[in-house]
Structures are given as structure tokens and as C-alpha cells.
Fold this sequence. Notes:
By secondary structure, the chain is an alpha/beta fold.
Amino acid sequence: MYDSERPAPSMKVDLKVESGDAPMYSDAHIVHVEICQRSKSGMKKSVLEEVVKNAVESGTDLKTLLDGDLFEAVESIRFGGVNGDVSNTPPVNSENRIGWQYHVYKVDTSGGQLEDIEEEKEENSVHAAKNWILPSADFEGLWESLVFDAGVKESLLSYVEVTMLLSERGVDPNLVTWNRVVLFHGPPGTGKTSLCQALSHKLCLRLGSRFDYGHLVEINSHSLFSKWFSESGKLVQRMFETIEGLVDDPRALVCVLIDEVESLAAARNRCGNEPSDATRVVNAVLTQLDNIKRLKNVLILTTSNVTGMIDLAFVDRADLKKYIGPPSAEAAYGILRGSALELMKKRIVAHDNICADFKKLAAKSQAAYGQTEKLISIAEKCAGLSGRTLRKLPFLAMVKAGVGSGGSLAAENMQIIPSEVFFGALDSAVDEELADRKKLDK
């Protein structure tokens, strides 16, 4: 497998690895081998799985195999653990390791389709949601690109595994209760919505032995409020009836994303004594959540930037209430490093051997790891900046570095940015962002 820190040489397939929080190939965790099959490939999944399994476990060079016999069948292969860290090679088998799980899948390329519902007092329909068939090309690689502090991804995958186990074993929900609801909360721009999308996609890969495919239904909360009094609660009910229609297929895993859930579950004690349309919406949402939790193949993912406005009855129904805050210095390092490696891979920035670990280097090692020390100091200055802002900084650094300043924007005329110039510009972009924020606060 190629070293992700070097610009990849010309190759026909994409061998990828998964990023995460802890050592990927620890003896305590299964290794997941995710095989993305080309959409036009007619090879049976079982056959493809067996070919890749034999190759991985025998130590066969995967680049040779994929560039040759499997070129027409395989788009990419990823190796990941439950919480996986970056690794440039497949694991080597040992007696202490639990083993591998293989997941062969094809991605759907149709994108999100609008789900419309009718209002009783209007002839026009309401665009109530978008529905993706999973796995979806729109979310391929998203899970790997997200960087959070330790334990976030691992705890989510573990949570879903436990809900599936309890359902399959027929555990009495009156004695052990779970509601299939997760609430992600925190400031804007920290990746809550992206995490929901990525988790839904990843679950369809990891649970491929249980489900043939999946849905991600992203509800447009604001569209469910009608100008007609008492109609909004009915729209919520119809939306969940549509979802239950999808859940009726036991082969499908249905993930429901409610972004800015406070729009649909606003605290009722703020509504006064008179029953309002907002109160009816909250009641409808709570009723539908109670109805849907009996179903084994559904998961409700919600996000909020203002948890103080959410009705406590909804908060109480959430199994997990996961805070997603601004990245730590270590997480910021991972985000910025990933962005820099992408620019190096695309030959926009010159190659630099940036260390994968966020740690101070011994003086004798600094030369071997290029701009690592510089990136560490940049990441340490980024405390409090959101993930959304961090991912914009490499773009702003390129602007500062003068890309295209020669008057020609033709790709063939652009010069590769030296790594020391790029990271110097990145440092300057961070300083400017912090200075601008201070001015806004005044």
C-alpha cells in the first residue's frame, strides 16, 4: 500500500486507509476490510471477497493484484478497526488477533432525492426531506476525513452494535430500555451533520451481513411548519409515516437525520399556557419517536447548536447525548495535516514528510519530518476554531502563497508551492483569522 505521506505515483486503483482515534490493529479489535466494487463489475460479492481475503491473509501485493486481475472489479480497499488509526499496509495475521471482517459494497450514485408530502389545505406538496440510498457516493470517504478527539467514532459504532445485539436477542425493552435516538450537540461548524451522514454510510458497510442496503432520510425541519394552524403536527406525522414505509423492508437500515432538532422539539415550557402549533409539533415528534423505537432497523440521529431550547422530554429520549466541540490542538493537527496531504497528492504543494503523530520531535529527527514542527505550532494556535474554519485555512494559505498570481490560471502554468512557503502562508492565514475574530468581538 502506498505511503499516504508521499504523492502517489500513477496508479489505476485507490488503496485507502481509515483514520481515527486509537491503534487500528490492536489485538482487542477486529480489522474491517472494506472493498468498494466498481458499479459495472458483474463479479459476485462472495467471489470477490474470497479473492481479496486470500490475497490479504497470504501477504500478496495488493497493488499488483488490483492493477491486474481485479482492476475491472475493485474501486478501492480500506483497512480499518473499530476506531482505526492510519496504516499504510494491511495487517499481518497472528494468533492473538481476532481476525478480519470483509465488506464488499457498491455505492449508489443517484444522490439525495426529494421526499414530498401533501398539505391537507394546500394543493402544493412540501419538500419535507432528502433521501439517499446507502452506501452513497456522496458520503464515500467522509468518515475517514473527519477528525475528532479520542473515542467519538468508536463509541458510536459500539452503540449501534449494542442496539442491534439487544434487538436480535429479543431483550425485553421494558426491562432494558433503548430508544435508537442520538443527540449531537455543540457549537456550529464542528462537524455534527457530517458525522451523522458519515456514520449512516459507514453502518451500511459494516452491517452488510444484516442489511442489503440503507436509507439516509434528512428531514427539512423548517418545511414541516405550515401556515395553517394545527397542520404542522399532521405534517410531522405524515413524514414519519413515510419513514415507516421505508422501515417496512427488513433488508434496509434506515437512518433519519434531524438537523437543528430544536426546530421540531422546542421546549414546551417556552410556549406559554395556550396550546400552539409548536407545542403540537413537539407532541407529534415525541409520539412518533415512541412508535418507531420498536422497529429493529431504524436509527434517529439529531443535531443541535442550542440545546437549552430543546424540550426535556426529547433530551430524555436520547440514548446518547454526545458533545462535539471545537477540535483540540491534536485534532486540529490531524485536520490540517489531512488537508496538506491532499494538496500534496494533487501536486499543488510540494511533498513534505509530515509526521502522522502529534508530538514534539527530537532535534535529530526534525530534518527527516520536514515541516512537522511548524504544523504542530500552527495547530496549537488553532484552539477554539471550528473544523469548518480549519478546513478553509489551507485554501486561504494558497491565496496568500500567490497561486495564480502570474496572471495565468491554466493548470499547466501553475508552479508547485514549496512546502515551506505553504506552511508559512498557513501560519499567516491562522494569525489573520484570529485577528479578524478579535475585531468582530469588539
